[in-house]
Every structure is written in structure tokens, then in C-alpha cells.
Design goal:
Blueprint (H helix, E strand, L loop, with lengths): L9 E5 L3 H13 L3 E5 L2 H8 L6 E5 L7 H9 L8 E5 L4 H9 L4 E4 L4 H21 E6 L2 E4 L4 E4 L2 E4 L2 H12 L5 E2 H9 L7 H17 L5 E5 L3 E5 L5 H4 L10 E5 L3
Parallel strand pairs: 1-2, 1-3, 3-4, 4-5
Antiparallel strand pairs: 6-7, 6-13, 7-8, 8-9, 10-12, 11-12
Length: 259
């Protein structure tokens, strides 16, 4: 399954029951989604620390790390806007309210119906795709990325990037501090069916690094051996960072404007 931008859709699934996990994964794969399936919350968290996903499906009651704690962890990271569906055996209204108040976008009560699950996924992906398409500017630290002009704006000065350089930076900036797999970056920037070679990615990343240096931006596009890349932008200045634990995190804000 591809988005309206012809990009592959990756779904992360957390389900501790082996038969149910296999069944759900098969449903998703038959629809063309890429699936990463895990039996416990800790493994899912460790995977998400270094990888990205377009949509998450959590079970409320999973070993290692509950779905509620995992959701709180996700919402506190650079992937905080990723849509999350909870599957649960808890059908009471109070339980459903708790799920939604915790930050879930949708819920389904077990046993799941295949067509209902797939329909809910499509709705959330359409909503996410519309929001992404409408996002023309992204503020990261002291800089701004402007999709309309393909520019990195630093200290009030725009620095135009090549199309591929900008697309790579935009995607890495959406996942600041998180390792983006090389194959995921290739599929997002070049398209799933493109015959791009890994060395082409390295070449454009090298150009991007040179462009950042030329613009006087001290961001680092870090190569992660045998995995991919991570964008490190450093902490926000003290006057913008506020106080408390959040001050140690890089704040990324996307502003949606009319096309």
C-alpha cells in the first residue's frame, strides 16, 4: 500500500498472542503494507528508537511495557504525531475514554474484524497524508525548512537546496534524533519502485552536509553503520528551551499553511 504521494506505508504492530499477531500481520501484508511485528512493548520501543513507522497498532495489555506506557513514550519523541490504533479486550466506556485520553487516535475492541481494521487504517493514513501535504514549513531549532522554495532558512537567510537534498533533510528533520534506515530513506525520497542505488543516497547525503556547512548550520547528519542516518541538531537555546526534562530535547514544530 502506498500513500497519495506514492510512498510505502510501514506499520508497527504490537501483539503478544502469536496466532493473533500472525493473523493481523498477514492481513496488513496482503494489503501491501510493510509490517514490523513485536510480541512485547520493550522490543517495540527499542525498534522505534531507531526506526520510523507511518502508523502504530498497540495492544493495551502486552508484556514488558504496557501499551499505555509505550504510547506515552512515543508521544514524547520526534514521532509524536504518528497515528496510533489500540486493539483491546476492554470494551467498557471508561476504558475507551482512557485509551483516547492517553493519546490514541482510534481503538478497536477484540475480536477484530478485518475490513473494519483496514478501513480505520485508511482513514488515519488519509488524515495524516493530508496534514503532511499541507505542511509547507517546518521549524527545527533556530532554522526553518520551507518546502515551497526548497530552502533552509538560517539567521533570516534562505539557502536553496537541491530537490533530493531538501527531501532528505525534510524527512530526517521529521525524525530528529532518530535513526532513519537507509532503505526507508530511499523509498520515501525516491519512491518504492525507483532503482536508486545505496551509493546514490550517500552522494546526496554528502552534498547535504556540504550545503549545511555552507549555510553555517552546525547540524550533523550522522551515518549509523549498516543502518542509516540520524539528524542531530543539538539543544535549543536556553531562552527557547524552557525548563524541565523537555529542555534537553530538540523541539520540532510543523506549521500547516494553505497551499
Amino acid at each position: 500500500m502506498q500513500s497519495l504521494l506514492q510512498k510505502p506505508i510501514r506499520i508497527l504492530l504490537v501483539e503478544d498472542d502469536p496466532a493473533q499477531r500472525a493473523l493481523l500481520a498477514s492481513w496488513l501484508k496482503e494489503e501491501g503494507y510493510l509490517v514490523d511485528a513485536f510480541a512485547n512493548g520493550i522490543d517495540a520501543r527499542n525498534h522505534l528508537a531507531d526506526h520510523w513507522a507511518n502508523l502504530l497498532i498497540f495492544d493495551w495489555d502486552v508484556p514488558g511495557m504496557s501499551g499505555e506506557r509505550l504510547l506515552a513514550w512515543v508521544r514524547g519523541r520526534s514521532q509524536s504525531t504518528v497515528p496510533v490504533i489500540f486493539q483491546t479486550v476492554h470494551a467498557a466506556e471508561s476504558d475507551i475514554v482512557k485509551i483516547l485520553d492517553a493519546g490514541a487516535d482510534d481503538y478497536l475492541v477484540k475480536p477484530l474484524d478485518r475490513q473494519v481494521l483496514l478501513a480505520r487504517i485508511r482513514v488515519l493514513l488519509r488524515r495524516t497524508n493530508q496534514a503532511t501535504n499541507g505542511t509547507r514549513q517546518m521549524i527545527v531549532g533556530r532554522c526553518m525548512l520551507d518546502r515551497s522554495s526548497q530552502s533552509l532558512v538560517h539567521a533570516g537567510q534562505p539557502h536553496r537546496l537541491g530537490t533530493k537534498e531538501f527531501d532528505i533533510l525534510w524527512h530526517l528533520a521529521r525524525h530528529v534524533g532518530t535513526v532513519v534506515q537507509r532503505q526507508d530513506l530511499m523509498s520515501v525520497v525516491w519512491g518504492w519502485d525507483a532503482g536508486v542505488q545505496s551509493r546514490s543516497v550517500d552522494m546526496y547525503v554528502s552534498r547535504l552536509r556540504a550545503s549545511l556547512k555552507s549555510a553555517g548550520v552546525d547540524w550533523i547528519v550522522q551515518s549509523v553503520y549498516a543502518t542509516g542516518y540520524r539528524l542531530d541538531v543539538g539543544p535549543l537555546p536556553s531562552e527557547d528551551a524552557g525548563s524541565g526534562p523537555q529542555a534537553e530535547r530538540v523541539a520540532t514544530a510543523a506549521r500547516t499553511q494553505d497551499k
